[in-house]
Amino acid sequence: MIRFRPFRNSDPPRLLEIFRQTGLGRAFSRPESVHALEVSVFGLPYFDPEGLILAEDAETGTLLGFIHAGFGFSEDLQALDYTQGVICCVLVNEPVRHQGVGKELMGRAEEYLRERGATSLHAGQSKYRDPFYFGIYGGARPSGFPLSETGATEFLSSLGYHPVEQIGIFQRDLVGSRDPVNVRLITHRRNTELVISDQPPNPTWWWLTHFGNIESMRFALHERKKGTLIASLTVVGLDHYISAWNERAIGLVDIFVQEDYRGQGYGQSLIIETIRRLRTEMITRAEIHISDDRQAAIQAVSNAGFEQIDTGIVYAKSAPGVSSVS
Predict the structure, then answer these.
(1) 150: which DSSP letter?
(2) How many C-beta atoms surround the C-beta of residue 37 within 10 A?
């Protein structure tokens, strides 16, 4: 008999074990200790034990799987938006898959989200609908359910979910590849400077909860003469993936180019200059996630030597009384 219940303070070691042993693909890191889960899950100010639901054998207490539901962020990124329900992660042990455990977990997670005001339901995290697992699930950032994880589409479709966003997952080998060179890049390098800092001038609550407790750096490209900000990105360390990927990797996230400078190669310049600096830190691989609707950004990372290695799919379904969701 299977028992379903919310998170307890004694659960982290077992959750760490199932997280490390799922074998579901490249999106899962292999954290060495519970501390990684504390930083990206349990220790966050909005963590609610009721949203993390476990399935276990009622007789032996063996953990069979879990699901974690949360909420997106407000438009100003200073609070949670409880209308945006998100299924952040769902895992079921191999021996009990296709036996209804995942379906029951999904139903209980959806009930939790609706009871707290969710009017939209997303399966898979995406930009600013990403409350948990930063740095330990998804790679550079949580981005839906990767296509490389077979079975997710069929499972979610059977529950009424449909794809609403595709996110390209791009990587670049920093050891065996050379940086592109052209006249425009040389000119940009001569006329700009790279400024490295711990955080942006006015970090949002979203930024602080995601990057405030993990290894991260902000790289910003400024005009050399005027000091005007042109573009910026944040680099996050992915050391929890070392044993999973057999490489030391970093994630490049929140790439932003000021509107007046877009389409001029500054995004590519920023990425290349950032990588040049990080090579001295023995980094061997870089990863970037970009939604398919951002074609200019995709072109910039492709020009910087990145290749797409996977695709994250975000799914959605309507809550009762809501006709559509995106």
Answers:
(1) T
(2) 20
Helix (H) or strand (E) holding 6: strand 2-6
- Residue 41 has what DSSP assignment? I
Environment class of residue 288 by beta-carbon count within 10 Å: exposed (0-12), middle (13-18) or buried (19+)?
buried
Per-domain residue ranges of the chain: 2-166+312-318, 171-311
Instruction: Domain 171-311: give its CATH architecture.
Output: 3-Layer(aba) Sandwich (3.40)
Q: Copy the structure tokens of residue 3.
A: 């028992």
**Polymer length in residues for the chain:** 326
CATH 3.40.140.10 fits 2-166+312-318, yes or no: no
Q: What is the pLDDT along the chain (326 residues), one digit of tens a residue?
A: 899 999 999 999 999 988 887 656 888 898 989 999 999 999 999 999 999 999 998 888 889 999 999 999 999 999 999 999 999 999 888 777 778 899 999 999 999 999 999 999 999 999 999 999 999 999 999 999 999 887 889 999 999 999 999 999 999 999 877 888 888 888 988 999 999 998 888 899 999 999 887 888 999 999 998 889 999 999 999 999 998 899 999 999 988 899 999 889 999 999 999 988 888 778 899 999 999 998 888 988 999 999 999 999 999 996 554 444 45
Backbone angles phi, psi at 190, to 5 degrees: -75, -35
